[in-house]
Specification:
alpha/beta, five-stranded parallel sheet, 10 strands
Length: about 260
């Protein structure tokens, strides 16, 4: 990529972040992540074994922390207290790891974020020394409040978690991007590579996804497609697209000046 992604002072070559859940096994998980080129991988502390159960395989055996940056998340948490407790557990399991993804859900059917509890948890975690990447709604006011608290990345949804509906409100995303001084990473709702490209063309700093890859008919191929979509979108953003016009003011093949 032309420029690297910097989160909490660390530079990453890939702007694609991927989850580790919903694959048929850890072998497929590893293959998909290799195909995606991702360097940051999310892990649901409540759902994935990182050594909590010594009698079953650990994700760390397939995705060593020496090769990937782990991003423990609070999937399944519905209160600030629950989220804070979960991430403190993650810090212990991962030997003092500070970079985390905070999400506090407000509804079990839509998995829409509870922004009030999210703000509360973010404040506690930042004071506790965590580097907090935070999942939130696409509300620019809430996004600014989370940045002011000290979150190191803002992660607004594109559409509902697991929906695959793509970016439903590009205008709000653009408002968040334009006001933010920390990375803005689209999280949730991406369904295919064109969704990832659109997010990057808007000026997002990265895209995080899980279901879009894991639930594809061919997860490995989709992971490669997502890698290319993110890269193409970033290049298009840096290149600067032509202005939109109802029609061209001049023909693209003018007759003036033609030889003969």
């Amino acid at each position: 990529m032309t420029t690297s992604l910097t989160i909490a002072g660390i530079e990453y070559g890939s702007r694609l972040l991927v989850g580790t859940g919903k694959y048929k096994d850890f072998t497929e998980t590893r293959a998909a992540i290799d195909a995606s080129g991702a360097e940051i991988v999310t892990v649901a502390i409540r759902r994935v074994n990182l050594g909590q159960d010594p009698n079953v395989p650990s994700l760390l055996d397939y995705l060593p922390a020496s090769e990937f940056t782990y991003l423990p998340n609070t999937a399944g948490c519905y209160s600030a207290d629950d989220a804070v407790r979960t991430l403190r557990l993650a810090r212990e399991l991962l030997d003092g790891h500070k970079l985390v993804k905070l999400e506090v859900l407000g509804d079990p059917h839509t998995l829409y974020p509870n922004v009030i509890e999210t703000l509360k948890a973010a404040e506690t975690l930042v004071k506790d020394g965590f580097d907090v990447m935070v999942y939130t709604s696409d509300d620019p006011i809430v996004a600014k409040q989370l940045e002011d608290i000290g979150c190191c990345a803002i992660m607004p949804l594109a559409s509902l978690i697991g929906s695959g509906m793509g970016i439903l409100n590009p205008w709000n995303l653009k408002l968040i991007i334009d006001q933010s001084k920390v990375p803005v990473i689209v999280d949730a709702g991406v369904g295919t590579a064109s969704d990832a490209a659109i997010a990057m063309e808007l000026g997002c700093d990265g895209v995080l996804m899980n279901t879009a890859i894991a639930a594809a008919q061919d997860p490995i191929r989709m992971a490669r497609a997502m890698k290319l979509g993110v890269e193409a979108g970033r290049e298009a953003f840096l290149a600067g697209r032509m202005p939109r016009k109802l029609y061209a003011g001049a023909p693209s093949s003018p007759t003036g000046g033609m030889i003969g």
